[in-house]
Amino acid sequence: MRVLLVFWVFAVPGAALAHAEDGDSGGWTFALWLTAPLAVSAVLWLTGLVRRFRRTRAGQPLLRREALWFALAWIILALAVLSPLHAAGERSFTLHMIEHEIIMLVAAPLFALARPLPTMLWGFAQPWRAGIGAAAAATRPFWRAIAAPIFATVAQAAALWLWHAPALFDLALGSDVWHAVQHISFFVTALLFWAAILDRRRSIGLRALCLFATFIVSGALGALMAFSESPWYEPYALLGMTPQRLTPAEDQQLAGLLMWVPGGFVHAAAALGLLAPFLGADEPKRAR
User: Fold this and answer.
1) How many C-beta neighbours within 10 Å does residue 22 have?
2) Which pTM was predicted?
3) CA distances (Å), origin 2, targets 15, 109, 261, 275
């Protein structure tokens, strides 16, 4: 696994720059604002993992599980934002939606399972590590507040609805900077949300309620898109037919269905998974 991560950290950005210089990216996107954070996060995490692994034996099984989750999440996120899917999303709203769904519904929960921050902290040199740890301790009330399930749910819902407002979405489509801000907003709020949902110290009922609320909020936005007969976003409307031979309105309707149905299924299934032990608690009594 370590060899695989080293390859992804150094080979992918290196190949990116080489292809970019040759003018032939093969549909892959290698913008610095995408490759640099991915490379830095992987280097920090890998360095921290090695250091933590050397310091403990009892904790190695847990570190291995977290390493698996992180490697899987990192590769999925890298493929979502670097692969031809990212570039194709500029010509099809449906493909753009698939990219967003992968970021928010696949990569983000996997990163939350990996709990990468303690390991990444160990990736810094000791003086930096001490300073960051002291700053985190001083701002602990703030981090507890934004990690609360209700706040995280509201923050993710706000990011989702605001960035899908036509004015802001058109702004992101027309500017690399605002496109980066949009993706960061989606990823960070989804990461907060899934970290809160997967936090076993929180009430199961509250976490399930937040999942059902997200199911309704995101589903409502997807349904509005799916039933709309006119395209919301001017850049996509001006492109005309998509490469998949869909009109702008049909492209938007399909994107809305993807947000509504598969996206809603993930949140509903997670909520039912949390409540499953309670839903089946009375079955033995009824059987007797």
Assistant:
1) 8
2) 0.85
3) 19, 22, 37, 37
Instruction: Select from 98, 109, 116 the least CA-distant residue to 42.
Output: 116
Give the dihedral sign, CA 97/191/212/269.
positive
Question: Are residues 147 and 195 in contact, defined by beta-carbon separation less than 8 angstroms?
Answer: yes
For residues 183 and 279, what is the distance between their CA atoms, to the nearest angstrom?
A: 37
Q: What is the DSSP letter of 8?
A: I
Kindly tell me the sign of the dihedral angle through the C-alpha atoms of 230, 234, 240, 244.
Answer: negative
Amino acid at 104: M
pLDDT digits (tens, 9 = 90+) for 78-89: 999 999 999 899
Nearest to 156 by CA among 110, 223, 213: 213
What is the CB-side half-sphere exposure of residue 61 using CA atoms within 13 A? 1
| 224 CB-near residues (< 8 Å, 6+ apart) | 256
| Domain membership of residue 119 as a residue range | 2-287
Q: Which residue type does 155 have? A: A
Distance (Å) of CA 208 to CA 60, 105, 181, 271, 283? 31, 16, 29, 5, 21
Residue with tokens 């976003």, as numbered in its chain: 233
The total number of structural domains in the chain stands at: 1
Residue 65: CB atoms within 10 A of its CB come to 13
pLDDT tens digits, residue range 229-273?
999 999 999 988 888 889 999 999 999 999 999 999 999 999 999
**How many angstroms separate the CA atoms of 25 and 19, rounded?**
5
